[in-house]
Design a protein that fits this description.
By secondary structure, this protein is of the alpha/beta class. It is built from 16 helices and 14 strands. The protein has a 7-stranded parallel sheet with strand order 3-2-1-4-5-6-7, with helices on both faces. A 7-stranded parallel sheet has the order 10-11-9-8-12-13-14. Strand 8, helix 9 and strand 9 form a beta-alpha-beta unit. The radius of gyration is 21 Å and the shape is globular. The chain starts with a strand and ends with a helix.
Length: 373
Amino acid sequence: ARASVWIHAVSVGETLAAAPLVRRLLERFPDTPLVITTTTPTGSEQVRRLFGDRVAHVYCPWDLPGPLARFFRAFDPRLVLVMETELWPNMLAAAARRSVPVMLVNGRLSQKSHRNYARLRPLVRPMMASLHRLLVQTEAEARRFRDLGAREDAVRVTGSIKFDLDLDEALRRRAAELRARLGERPLWLAASTHPGEDETVLRAHRAIREVHGDALLMLVPRHPERFDTVAEQIGAAGFSLARRSREQWPEADTAVYLADTMGELLMLFGTCDLAFVGGSLVPVGGHNLLEPAAWEKPVLTGPHLHNFERIAALLDEAGGLSPVADEQELAERVTELLSLPEKRREQGRAAATVVEAHRGALERVVEEVSGAF
């Protein structure tokens, strides 16, 4: 029998999105080896943390015939699951030559990406046509994929599995214990920040502390290689600091708690009064807004949201999102929400209703994938 199922996730975001699916496949098909590939050290780290030795992890082979041939020989996949938008022409060709079906899971394609692909239509068409199934997040994305050559009957709108977040009892307990250790002071979290954003967040924090003198900022930079740099920036900004990785606890006068650990962000959202999600004040395209929303926290974000357009629109419509344009608006909005607990609760509940209303994609995806086993 063909040996494994190959799941390709690029980095931390896709790995976290794939995690619930991987868990379900491990339960449902315990005798089928799963191989997860990523392209970044943080993605690799995340796989190890989530699954230990229950899955194999290797870096994705170069998209060249030689490395791919060696990969197929080594792992002999009978099915390839590609997360979100990671379509590589040689990978798809190699799978097609060996009659291995490839499914795109949680597929997304922004207007911008669609335009870029459309310029290369002659190359892209055969690639799209070779896909066994495209399980995509929205009807708009289904249209874009079909326009680029995906077969009509291969495209299915399953919704986004990112809505199927599991805040289990153990996670809730850890969040409650951490919040108890951090105390009753106003606490806002800035998550997944990028270079250029940390400085903005720290300047906003200074303005916030002029009104809420004991406010604590929990800062969670996106990339672990930046932890030390950000710690230096916090010191240079004149703030006292406690680092989670060193098990330092904030004193009453500590201004910033640097959460410089990996794989804890979902839990950390459970500790704060409100959350700003980074990658959005700089042109990165935003990060997962649903994690704080699932915890019933008000969600703040900058204007650069092209990776999360639809999710941002749904949260905004429901009244659970506060878009801010710059550091001044960030400071004003955080200050206001810290002063108004009732408004905070209202916005947090509105954000959570969006997550609840769109659950169910995971079930649909598991069924589709199981049908290909």
